[in-house]
């Protein structure tokens, strides 16, 4: 059981208020919230956190970030079993601006923290258990890094959700139907999102729009046919991979490969 309190007597941009791990967690009720920003994670056993009208289960290797001043209560999910936690609290003159960037108003539940988040309290304990001004200034860099880790973790969760709901269904649909005409509206029917939103998510993930991806996929298939079926006419290959206009097929192929399909065949 390791715990350290480190609230300085003067203002700092960021400072560690407390840090601990292997803590046998007793029930805790804070009707007025905590005076600092609070990261809490479950090490062994399971806890229940009540905050903002929600009951959140913290299983081992799950965590929650609580904004300061937000009322909450937490305790072991089973009164007859121990709940071991790790935690880290911080504040400072720049802390609220950092948390605003994080987008947290009351709390942020993190069901799958990265390894760097999970090991933060144990790895930084000795460093944060120093009280000199120089040490506190060094700690501020690590606190900033901690908030960025939370931001990255939350962004990854959003990306994984969007990848599952939007980008992968689009790619699968294009893979199966690239030889036919495909519109943005048709893809929106697959994802059940608006064209504007799905295109923005897809472009953020792949740096191209769904229809640009479709064109590149068709050109990839055309290249495969040019290599495997050199005797086929250019028009036939273009039609098979989904280009309704042969001149458009030739234009797009040359744009990507710097040569026409016919010139490409000569290099085979």
UniProtKB/TrEMBL annotation:
GO molecular function: DNA-binding transcription factor activity; sequence-specific DNA binding
A Pfam family assignment: HTH_18
Name of the protein in its database record: Two-component sensor response regulator
Gene3D superfamilies: Homeodomain-like
Keyword Cell membrane set for record: no
Domain HTH araC/xylS-type: 168-267
UniProt superkingdom: Bacteria
The organism of origin for this protein: Agrilactobacillus composti DSM 18527 = JCM 14202
UniProt keyword list: DNA-binding, Transcription, Transcription regulation
SMART domains cross-referenced by the UniProt entry: HTH_ARAC (SM00342)
InterPro entries: AraC-bd, Homeodomain-like_sf, HTH-like, HTH_AraC, HTH_AraC-typ_CS
Transmembrane stretches, start-end: none
């Amino acid at each position: 059981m390791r715990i350290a309190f480190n609230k300085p007597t003067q203002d700092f941009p960021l400072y560690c208020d407390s840090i601990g791990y292997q803590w046998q967690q007793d029930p805790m009720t804070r009707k007025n919230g905590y005076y600092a920003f609070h990261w809490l994670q479950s090490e062994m056993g399971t806890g229940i956190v009540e905050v903002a009208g929600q009951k959140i289960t913290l299983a081992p290797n799950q965590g929650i970030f609580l904004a300061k001043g937000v009322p909450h209560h937490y305790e072991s999910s089973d009164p007859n079993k121990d709940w071991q936690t790790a935690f880290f609290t911080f504040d400072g003159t720049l802390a609220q601006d950092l948390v605003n960037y994080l987008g947290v108003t009351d709390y942020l539940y993190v069901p799958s923290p990265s390894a760097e988040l999970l090991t933060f309290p144990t790895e930084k304990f000795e460093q944060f258990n120093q009280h000199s001004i120089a040490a506190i200034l060094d700690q501020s860099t690590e606190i900033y890094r901690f908030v960025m880790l939370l931001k990255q973790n939350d962004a990854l969760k959003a990306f994984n959700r969007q990848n599952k709901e939007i980008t992968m269904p689009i790619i699968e649909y294009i893979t199966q139907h690239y030889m036919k005409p495909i519109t943005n509206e048709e893809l929106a029917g697959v994802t059940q999102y608006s064209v504007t939103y799905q295109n923005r998510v897809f472009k953020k993930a792949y740096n191209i729009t769904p229809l640009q991806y479709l064109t590149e996929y068709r050109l990839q298939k055309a290249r495969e046919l040019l290599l495997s079926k050199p005797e086929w006419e250019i028009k036939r290959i273009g039609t098979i991979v989904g280009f309704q206009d042969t001149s458009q097929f030739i234009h797009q192929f040359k744009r990507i490969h710097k040569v026409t399909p016919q010139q490409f065949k000569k290099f085979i």
